[in-house]
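FW: tagging you since you asked about this chain on Friday. Here's the raw sequence from the shared folder, copied in full. Didn't touch anything.
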Amino acid sequence: MEFFFDFIRHTIQQLVQQGLLPESLKYSFVINALLAALMSGPILGFIGTTVVSKRMAFFSSAIGNATLTGIAIGILLGEPVQAPYISLFSFAVLFAILLNFLRHRTNMSNDTLIGVFLAASLAIGSTLVLAITRDINLHTLDEFLFGNILTLTTVDLTLLFFTSLATLAAGIFGFNYIMLSGLNPSLAHVRKVPVKTVNYLFVVFIALITVASVKVIGAVLVQALLVIPAASAANVSKSLKGFTFYSTLFATISAAAGILIPAEMELNIPSGGAIIIAATIIFIATFYIKLLKKF
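HL: got it, structure written out here
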């Protein structure tokens, strides 16, 4: 994959020299960040439509916070501080499976159960982080919490590429099953849709794409890119097809703008914050469009 990404970087830099692309793209780290944003943005926007439809916005937030615990465990076990991916992915997936398991086995509402897991993951994560601060600089964790385009490597891009590809394939082929099992489980059972299996696969892929995106968007903010573009799309779409299209489009625009605008204006702000600010501006714009249509 290194040859593949080197080829893309070299091609983009040639286009910059010809004056066809923004000047900031002459730097490899900006290209890396843009590639990561263009891989994670559309996927999060696409998956976000099902997250919002299934009313699981808090679930993705809990997964985002659980990554903090996974990072701390990885560092304690001796994984590299910059890339504790084995513990990170393992803990997030186990967290998602356990949460989904209890959803099916208890009568508690989703909000209550997710709230318990959200609080527990924050408590465990913050406790473990304090334990590792003796060995590492606490600011090292900032890149996982808020995103940092300076630290993206070819390994990060490769991981994000394959995770995005797998999530996209699962989303496309299982979209109807996911939506039906979320909106009307009874009808899904009648049509012999394996609802529980679909739900388990759905939460696992949310966990995977959330973890793969933390370095560019940040664990704290990745949940916002699942929800805000979908909420913006709901303001302007009239069909499920339009809802999915606009959510994907808005997330892609937000991710690209959040990387390129700060780089062009030389603003020293976290990539995750810039991406979510761009998504919020789009939400406000679509909200006013919705209001204007009523008059």
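FW: The chain has one domain: 30-293.
HL: agreed, and The chain has a mean pLDDT of 81.
FW: great, closing this out.
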